[in-house]
Write a structure and sequence with these properties.
Blueprint (H helix, E strand, L loop, with lengths): L2 H13 L7 E7 L5 H14 L3 E7 L21 H8 L3 E4 L7 H8 L3 E4 L4 H6 L4 H14 L4 E5 L5 E5 L6 E3 L9 E3 L4 E4 L6 E7 L4 E2 L4 E2 L4 E6 L2 E7 L1 H11 L9 E7 L8 H4 L6 H5 L4 E5 L15 E5 L3 E4 L2 E5 L2 E2 L9
Parallel strand pairs: 1-2, 1-3, 3-4, 4-8
Antiparallel strand pairs: 5-6, 5-18, 6-10, 7-9, 9-15, 10-13, 11-12, 13-14, 15-16, 16-17, 18-19, 19-20
Helix pairs in contact: 1-2
Amino acid sequence: MDYDFVNVCRDELRLCGVHEGEAVAILSSDAAGELMGHAAAFMQAAKELGALPYHVRVPANRGAAGGAWEVGQTPLSGHPAAMAALKEAAIVIDLVFMLFSKEQLEIQASGTRVLLAVEPVDVLTRLLPTPELRERVEFAGELLSPAESLRIEHDNGTRLVYRLGRYPVITEYGYTDEPGRWDHWPSGFLFTGAHDDGVDGTMVLAPGSILYPFKSHIRTPITLRIEDGRIVDLSGELDAELMRNYMDQFHDPDGYAISHIGWGLNEKALWSGPMMDTRGIGQEGRSFYGNVLFATGPNQELGGKNASPCHLDIPLHGYSLYLDDRQIIDRGDVVVQEMRPRQ
């Protein structure tokens, strides 16, 4: 056992409000691999806090459509006994990636809080969250919640407008201490969604932006023409062809819908992270300070009806973002003082 990581997990569980006598469920699958070390560390850390940990290990999913990475598919489907065990816990440590699934929403609805923690040990350790990060993310959420419009601009021709007000704002700061709340360690950003038909304009994905799930930086510009909340044209060179080929594997028009939008505030997260480390699912690249997180595909996490398994997260580097014409980010630099890290 990695006892240094046990100490880090204990600090994380303290941030999550785990206390003596509280039930802590650790969810993994039989394909967990190195994540079994995470499970052992969380188990030990919970014991040291006097909590009541237990491990729910389920069979992994079998394959995915066309070899593509799907979201919303979990090994809990059709497994009511495992679901019952998870809903009995005060908190679930998710090592299988339940995000975008109806199972996760059902667990949250029971009042159980959920913490996703599937990044490598060194990344989790370096990006252990802080209450100060939470304060800045929650302040950003207070700015975003009443906004009626959001605009993204770049001198490469990008001008994309979101009509807001349909969906709630979700904040992620890396821990959860409130009943029914989900978070992702590591993290440090917030997002919302537009009206389903409320995104219009042009998005030019510039070189240097990150394309997930590829975990790679874009090298050739990709131009997206967006009307009524959907991509109606996708053009460019190699990266555009790869993106189109990936999305077409799903044979799902809803994969071309525009999903959530938000921005990153974690000054410890590295823009270059995916270049150096392709382990995990790349949460570091989604959280880096000043990125604009543009996404396509499902929106049921926000309460929408789009359940497409085709999901792309694209952290944009060097873009500007406005809320109701108030500038929030200027070419990758956060300009609102309350969202800037304390010196």
